[in-house]
């Protein structure tokens, strides 16, 4: 089956052509136009600006994706589009494009949840029979959730953050430390080569001992804000840089400790046979490494599925893959029924 995937939920315009047959995925083309440089000037995504850029990029990207895939629009068998959650004005560009194409070309149309896309993004390089039940740890800019995946497209929420998402916490801490936007990669870069703890930092691991699977990350950010205000007074320039590195490192470790602890607990509680990682923060090398070591040591029988780096951030391949599973169930929607839903929760 050849699927056209479209993703515009936030600040990435993405189009992909994916062929899935005989349990094999072939990415015929995958294009992502990131607006990150534009939004960096404002320190975060400006919805109006994002929507305008999606409109500008959509048709050229679609044209190029088809050319790179060497496919005509007629050859496309279904169109999968991310309909939420996300920014309404951004989502609408992808959704209206998909609706128009489906209407004019009489193609099957599939609405895909963005979080479902992140959960299935690992399949772009490791398609095949997943051993269920699985636990998915979704860590993005807007979501931090532990989801039980009982089978393809069958989800149950196990726990999640009560306040900031992990990616959001990375972005806010990077802002406090003036490290730039987006914060995740900036924090990760700042930690590189930092092996000291001269400032004896020890940030809280909020809710790590709570009996449930709930998490909280905004307290770490506040602790960092106060610590940084206290530390930066009277520090020489070089010490300021060292303090930033140590804060970044201790922050990243605090977050990873909480995520690993709650994930391990969820695997134990549900008897998961597979652990899936997804979302923008899954690009974090330390998180990937520590999670892999934890699984190898504590759950050698559990298979760990982690997306390739190119599939960690928002992309349209993951939307097409999720679309494929919906297509198997004939879960299509008419072009006049489909609507963008900014608050669409998967579970
Ligand atoms: O999934 P995503 O691209 O967009 C949403 O669905 O929200 O996730 C974006 C988030 C941002 O908060 C960004 O700072 C974070 O992912 N991120 C990272 C890294 N790369 C991106 N966080 C930590 N380490 C990284 N290397
Ligand atoms: Zn995302």
Explain this structure.
This protein is α/β, with parallel strands linked by helices and 347 residues long. It contains ten helices and ten strands. The protein has a five-stranded mixed sheet with strand order 3-2-1-4-5, sandwiched between helices. Helix 2 runs parallel beside helix 3, helix 7 runs antiparallel to helix 8 and helix 8 runs parallel beside helix 9. The chain binds 5'-O-[(R)-(carboxyoxy)(hydroxy)phosphoryl]adenosine and zinc ion. Zinc ion binds next to helix 4.
Entry keywords:
five-stranded mixed beta sheet, 43% helix, 347 residues, binds zinc ion, alpha/beta, 10 helices, binds 5'-O-[(R)-(carboxyoxy)(hydroxy)phosphoryl]adenosine, 10 strands
Structure summary, number of beta strands: 10
Number of contiguous helices: 10
Order of helices and strands: EEEHHEHEHEEEHHHHEHEH
Question: Which distinct ligands sit in these coordinates?
Answer: 5'-O-[(R)-(carboxyoxy)(hydroxy)phosphoryl]adenosine, zinc ion
Largest sheet: 5 strands, mixed
Q: State the shape.
A: globular
Low-confidence stretches: none
Fraction of residues in H or I helices: 40-55%
Give the N-to-C terminal Cα separation: 27 Å
| DSSP strand content | 15-25%
What strand order characterises the main sheet?
3-2-1-4-5
Structural class: alpha/beta
Integer average pLDDT: 97
Rg, rounded, reads 21 Å
Short description:
With 347 residues, the protein is an alpha/beta fold.
């Amino acid at each position: 089956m050849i699927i056209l995937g479209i993703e515009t939920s936030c600040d990435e315009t993405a189009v992909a052509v994916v062929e899935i047959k005989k349990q094999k995925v072939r990415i015929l083309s995958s294009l992502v136009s990131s607006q990150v440089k534009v939004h960096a000037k404002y320190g975060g995504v400006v919805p109006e600006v994002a929507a305008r850029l999606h409109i500008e990029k959509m048709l050229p990207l679609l044209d190029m994706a088809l050319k790179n895939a060497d496919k005509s629009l007629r050859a496309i068998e279904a169109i999968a589009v991310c309909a939420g959650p996300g920014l309404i004005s951004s989502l609408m560009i992808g959704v209206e494009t998909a609706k128009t194409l489906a209407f004019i070309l009489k193609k099957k149309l599939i609405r895909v949840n963005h979080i479902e896309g992140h959960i299935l993004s690992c399949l772009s390089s490791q398609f095949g029979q997943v051993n269920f039940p699985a636990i998915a740890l979704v860590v993005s800019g807007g979501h931090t959730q532990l989801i039980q995946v009982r089978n393809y497209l069958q989800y149950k929420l196990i726990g999640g953050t009560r306040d900031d998402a992990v990616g959001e916490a990375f972005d806010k801490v990077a802002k406090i430390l003036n490290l730039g936007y987006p914060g995740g990669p900036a924090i990760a870069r700042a930690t590189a080569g930092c092996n000291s703890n001269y400032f004896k930092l020890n940030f809280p691991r909020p809710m790590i001992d709570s009996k449930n699977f709930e998490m909280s990350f905004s307290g770490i950010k506040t602790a960092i804000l106060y610590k940084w205000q206290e530390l930066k007074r009277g520090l020489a320039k070089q010490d300021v840089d060292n303090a930033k590195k140590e804060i970044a490192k201790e922050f990243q470790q605090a977050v990873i400790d909480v995520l690993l602890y709650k994930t391990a607990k969820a695997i134990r509680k549900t008897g998961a046979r597979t652990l899936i990682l997804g979302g923008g923060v899954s690009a974090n090398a330390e998180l990937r490494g520590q999670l892999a070591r934890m699984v190898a040591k504590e759950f050698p029988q559990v298979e760990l599925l982690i997306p390739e780096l190119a599939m960690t951030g928002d992309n349209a391949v993951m939307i097409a893959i999720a679309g494929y599973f919906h297509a198997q169930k004939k879960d299509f929607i008419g072009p006049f029924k489909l609507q963008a839903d900014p608050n669409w929760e998967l579970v």
